[in-house]
Amino acid sequence: MKKDTFELNCPVAYTLETVGDPWSILIIRDILLGNSRFKEFERSLKISKNMLTKRLTKLIDEGVLEKVPSKDGAWAIYSLTQKGRELTPIVMELAKWGSKWSSHTL
Fold first, then answer.
1. pTM of the model as a whole
2. Where exactly are the structural domains of the chain?
């Protein structure tokens, strides 16, 4: 049986439980790069609608993202909350580390 990482009473475990899956970090990265709409995430990440919906919902529930309707109400705009914005240096450091150790370029 998988142990819930929240039971570990550890800030690293909490962080990983909250935003530790790759899709969540990539959604946050996309927002930092200027994407804010469902279709933009879907196109950029090549992620299924179902998976994207699950990740966006979790990030909203965790207080990392907020969802607001566009001015005309035709779509929703996703943005980082204060809690989410505080992940910016972490995502940037992940990118820097990845650039150093991966053969992929950003």
1. 0.88
2. 5-99
